[in-house]
Design goal:
This protein has 12 helices and 12 strands. By secondary structure, it is an alpha/beta fold.
């Protein structure tokens, strides 16, 4: 329980596993669970709460933060925080905390499977390429980027990368050679993206980048949709500059670029990222535990902006 006599009030405005609610209640935190709460209702209710828990559905806008007079914490049950106005949260001293549990799973998605389900036998159409000996450029060397490097090294890939806050020595310790972006593009057979979407990364992959890449480069984006210019990617696919793309995220979701989705060299999934039963349960459980640690003054886990955090005291 929090050291304060005042109980914290939490509003959960997106669907989440019951275990999250149970853990919070077991720790004397009052929980209001209203999944898929529309913006107009959030604006009415949020002034009464100290903590807001969201997934990707709720947009924590400047308008929401400005009326949230008691708010001290936004908990994002997941990795991406592009649905939270971080500038306004920082200015108001509201802590933004994300939950970064990543489950290891795979999905069966090759076009050859779809072909066979149509009673076709088209072996000659699905000629692949060996990844052993190929160069994988990893943009973003956080937890997920490092996991990717570790796994692809096991397949014999050469792993190179870019991350503005990782030192060459640190990168070398997990088998990645660092380059600046301008040096990275011409070296890559495959490019995989593991960065957040912000002003610096929006359309990071664009026409100019494809011009610098090897012919036949392949692009994987499982981070955020706006990182890749979808029109630039489509242009590169149509000109054969890009030999293929695997996309789990899109600029608009559901995606509106039909030509890209239907392109035969594109494998796409509907933002499945951590979409397994185990992952959903784990992210809900860990989000609750992080909030309990926070209100009990024990730890700040997964906080996006630490330097602006104000002391958290419940309102009386």
């Amino acid at each position: 329980m929090s050291h304060s006599e005042k109980r914290y009030k939490v509003l959960i405005s997106d669907p989440i596993s019951q275990c999250c609610i149970d853990i919070l209640k077991e720790n004397n935190i009052d929980v209001t669970y209203k999944p898929k709460l529309p913006l107009e209702e959030i604006l009415k209710e949020i002034p009464e709460y100290e903590i807001l828990i969201v997934r990707s559905g709720t947009k924590v806008t400047k308008e929401v933060l400005n009326v949230a007079s008691k708010l001290i914490l936004v908990g994002r049950a997941g990795t991406g925080v592009d649905n939270v106005d971080l500038d306004t949260a920082t200015r108001k001293g509201v802590v933004v905390m994300k939950q970064c549990t990543w489950r290891k799973h795979n999905k069966d998605i090759p076009q050859a499977c779809s072909s066979m389900k149509l009673s076709k036998w088209e072996r000659s159409l699905f000629m692949g390429t060996e990844i052993h000996g190929k160069t994988l450029a990893i943009v973003g060397l956080g937890r997920v980027g490092r996991e990717v490097a570790f796994r692809m090294q096991a397949f014999g890939m050469k792993t190179i990368g870019y991350d503005p806050i990782v030192t060459p020595e640190a990168a070398k310790s997990f088998g990645v050679e660092l380059f600046c972006l301008e040096e990275l593009w011409p070296l890559a057979d495959f490019i995989t993206l593991h960065v957040p979407l912000d002003a610096q990364t929006k359309h990071l992959i664009n026409d100019d980048v494809f011009d610098k890449c090897r012919r036949g480069v392949r692009v994987i984006n499982v981070a955020r949709g706006g990182i890749v210019s979808e029109q630039a990617l489509l242009n590169a696919l149509q000109s054969n500059k890009c030999a293929g793309a695997a996309l789990d995220v899109f600029a608009e979701e559901p995606p509106q670029n039909v030509a890209l989705i239907q392109h035969p060299k594109v494998i796409c999934t509907p933002h499945l990222g951590a979409n397994t039963n185990e992952a959903q349960l784990e992210v809900s459980k860990q989000m609750a535990k992080q909030i309990v640690e926070f209100v009990n003054h024990k730890a700040l886990i997964g906080v996006v902006m630490v330097q602006t955090v104000r002391p958290h005291r419940p309102h009386t």
